[in-house]
Automatic annotation (TrEMBL):
Gene3D superfamilies found in the cross-reference section: Winged helix-like DNA-binding domain superfamily/Winged helix DNA-binding domain (1.10.10.10)
Annotated ranges, domain Winged helix DNA-binding: 18-96
Keyword DNA-binding in record: yes
MF GO annotations: DNA binding
Coiled-coil regions listed in the entry: none
The protein's name in its UniProt record: DNA-binding transcriptional regulator, ArsR family
PANTHER family found in the cross-reference section: BSL7504 PROTEIN (PTHR37318:SF1)
InterPro entries (UniProt xref): WH-like_DNA-bd_sf, WH_DNA-bd_dom, WH_DNA-bd_sf
Lineage: superkingdom: Bacteria
Keywords for the protein's UniProt record, in alphabetical order: DNA-binding
Pfam families: HTH_34
């Protein structure tokens, strides 16, 4: 019989890339697209795809502004997204803490 996952585990954040994105976004208020892309070492298209998934599920919001003719995209974690991220991290900690360890010899 498989143990039930701990409460707070967010299956969307089981993907390491989305977890890394939310980790960055949870540490800042707003984040520039280029900074986030460089922080998580993704291409523009790969980051855009992950952001679409996170936005569709309510984890993030995006704003697009123009500086002259140049678009600037800013991203932030929503309150719900931040709460879900922190709950996910806590659930992972619980899993690790409950894992039996061999006794030191």
């Amino acid at each position: 019989m498989t143990a039930a996952p701990p409460p707070g585990l967010d299956r969307l954040l089981s993907d390491p890339t989305r977890l890394a994105i939310m980790s960055v976004l949870s540490a800042v208020d707003w984040c520039d697209f280029a900074f986030l892309r460089d922080s998580v070492s993704l291409s523009d298209s790969a980051l855009s795809k992950q952001l679409t998934t996170l936005r569709t599920n309510g984890h993030i919001e995006q704003q697009r502004k123009y500086l002259g003719r140049v678009p600037k995209t800013s991203i932030r974690a929503t309150e719900d997204g931040r709460r879900r991220f922190l709950g996910h991290v806590e659930a992972l900690r619980d899993i690790v803490e409950r894992t039996p360890r061999p006794h030191d010899s």
